[in-house]
Automatic annotation (TrEMBL):
The protein, known as: HTH lacI-type domain-containing protein
UniProt-listed InterPro entries: HTH_LacI, LacI/GalR-like_sensor, Lambda_DNA-bd_dom_sf, Peripla_BP_I
PROSITE patterns membership: HTH_LACI_2
Pfam families in the cross-refs: LacI (PF00356), Peripla_BP_3 (PF13377)
GO molecular function: DNA-binding transcription factor activity; transcription cis-regulatory region binding
Length: 332
C-alpha cells in the first residue's frame, strides 16, 4: 500500500506538505516544481489517482479542425467531449487549442497534448521541441516522435468486404472522402480506400468504375459523389457499397432515395462510425462502431504514462470495431 509517508520519503518533502497537496488544500503555497515532484512521486509509486483531490497536470488538446468540419463529422465532436470527460476523471486540466491560437507558446506551458486532425511532419517536429509528451489520434506522420491511438479501420474494411462476398456479391462499390496531406497540400487516398483496392484486387473483383471518393467527410460530399455514381453508371450500379463514414452515408442515402434506388432491396450498404444519426436515417445503417469513449480513455492513459514514466520509444494502439447490424445490410 502506498502511504503518505512513502511518498514523503520518495519526494523529499514533509508528510504534511504531501498530505495537504494530495487532499486539495487550496491554501497550500508551494512552487509548481515542488507540486510536480510530489505528484509524480505519488503516481510513480502507484498511488490511486482517484484519491488525489488536486489537479494533477495541465494538458492540451490540439484540435486541428475547423468548427464547420467538426459539426459535419459527429465523430470528432464526440471525441473531443470524451477527452474532456476522461481528463476530468484523471484530475487533469484541459485546454483546447485551435489554428487561431499560439500553439507553441501554449505547449510550453503544459505537461502533454493530444492531437486531433491533420498534422504535417514539420509541425509535429516543432511540437516536440517544446512538449515531449503527446498522443496523435488517427493519422500520425511522425510515429517515432509521439504515441498513436487509432481505430483499426483497415481491418474492418477487409471485414466489410468479406461480409459482402460471403453473401454472394461481386459488384462492390466504394464511396468515401480523401485524406488531405498538410505537407504536400494535396488530397490523397484514405487508408480505407487503399485497403479496399488491395483486397478487391486480390479477390479479382476490383472495378474502377465503382470507386467514388474525393473531398471531405461530409453529408454534402456523400450526396454529390452518389449523384455522380448514379448519373455515370445509370442501371449498372453495384450490388453493395462500402461507405467510409456514417456522415458520408447520410448523403449517400439521400441521393439514392431521391432516385428511388431502394436500400437494401436494390443494393446494400455498410458504413463506419456508428454515430447517433446512423439509427435514425432510412433505412437505419449497418455500421462498424468506433468506441469513441475507449479511444479517449486510451489516449489519456497513454499520455499519463508518458508524463509519469518518460520513455524514449513510442507506442501505437489500434482499437477494434464492433459490427452493428441494422437494415441497410443483413449478413448471410
Amino acid at each position: 500500500m502506498v502511504t503518505i509517508k512513502k511518498i514523503s520519503e520518495h519526494s523529499g518533502y514533509s508528510q504534511a506538505t504531501v498530505s495537504r497537496l494530495l487532499n486539495g488544500d487550496e491554501s497550500l503555497s508551494i512552487t509548481p516544481d515542488t507540486r510536480k515532484k510530489i505528484i509524480h512521486a505519488a503516481l510513480a509509486l502507484g498511488y490511486d489517482r482517484s484519491k488525489i483531490k488536486t489537479t494533477l497536470e495541465k494538458i492540451a488538446v490540439v484540435f486541428w479542425l475547423t468548427e464547420q468540419e467538426e459539426l459535419q463529422d459527429v465523430y470528432f465532436r464526440q471525441l473531443r467531449i470524451s477527452l474532456e470527460k476522461y481528463a476530468k476523471i484523471n484530475n487533469m486540466e484541459i485546454q483546447l487549442i485551435t489554428h487561431e491560437d499560439h500553439v507553441l507558446d501554449i505547449l510550453k506551458q503544459v505537461s502533454g497534448f493530444i492531437g486531433i486532425g491533420s498534422f504535417g511532419k514539420e509541425e509535429l517536429q516543432q511540437f516536440k521541441t517544446v512538449c515531449s509528451a503527446g498522443v496523435i489520434l488517427e493519422i500520425n506522420p511522425e510515429a517515432e516522435l509521439f504515441d498513436t491511438v487509432k481505430p483499426d479501420t483497415d481491418r474492418i474494411t477487409k471485414k466489410a468486404l468479406d461480409l459482402f462476398i460471403d453473401k454472394g456479391y461481386s459488384e462492390i462499390g466504394f464511396i468515401g472522402g480523401a485524406f488531405f496531406n498538410p505537407d504536400t497540400q494535396q488530397e490523397e487516398q484514405d487508408s480505407r480506400e487503399i485497403v479496399f483496392r488491395q483486397k478487391m484486387s486480390e479477390k479479382l473483383l476490383f472495378k474502377e468504375k465503382y470507386m467514388y471518393s474525393a473531398g471531405k467527410f461530409t453529408v454534402d460530399q456523400g450526396y454529390q459523389l452518389t449523384i455522380d455514381m448514379i448519373e455515370t453508371l445509370k442501371e449498372d450500379l453495384p450490388e453493395a457499397i462500402f461507405v467510409a463514414s456514417d456522415t458520408i452515408a447520410v448523403g449517400v442515402l439521400q441521393a439514392l432515395n431521391e432516385h428511388s434506388i431502394t436500400v437494401p432491396d436494390r443494393l446494400e450498404l455498410i458504413s463506419v462510425n456508428d454515430n447517433d444519426i446512423a439509427k435514425f436515417v432510412s433505412p437505419p445503417l449497418t455500421t462498424f462502431r468506433i468506441d469513441v469513449e475507449e479511444i479517449a480513455k486510451t489516449s489519456i492513459d497513454m499520455l499519463v504514462d508518458q508524463i509519469v514514466h518518460p520513455r524514449k520509444i513510442t507506442k501505437t494502439v489500434s482499437l477494434g470495431l464492433e459490427l452493428i447490424v441494422r437494415k441497410s445490410f443483413l449478413p448471410k
